[in-house]
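hey can u check if this looks right to u? its 164 residues, i copy pasted from the old doc so theres a chance i mangled smth
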Amino acid sequence: MKVLIVSDSHRKDGNLLEVIQGTAPFDMMIHLGDGEGSDEMIRGWCEEASPGCEIHMVQGNNDFFSGLPSEEEFMIGPYRTFITHGHRYGVSMGPERLADEAETRGAKIAMFGHTHKPYLGREDGLTVLNPGSISYPRQEGRRPTFAILEIDENGELEIGHYYL
């Protein structure tokens, strides 16, 4: 199973389209917020690039008037997954509150955006991931990033951050 994970596109959609087309096919696509109204366009691009793929999107702090949920729980293969933009969990100060919430929910994977910086942490059976920003990166070098999560036939989880 292959999952494309992006965040913080902020209507600078050319980078996102390039990543969708360049990583297809994938089984699932996750957008962790601040798409700023591009939801239906993103769904269309994903369906065109990977027909039948599962799509999960949450609302970010800049997604005014969005009908997207602020957080969501679902399964990725055998892993219970919790996604949110992260601003309501203070992720700018660190992922600890988000990790605590994910553990309370029984999640094995937690994903967030908001900071525009890639992050991957693994502790006590919980994987916490931020793909960084596909449009406005803030980490050193300021290159747009995204993540790909793969689960092999044995159920092993592999996650990589990639630069555009």
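The chain has a mean pLDDT of 97.
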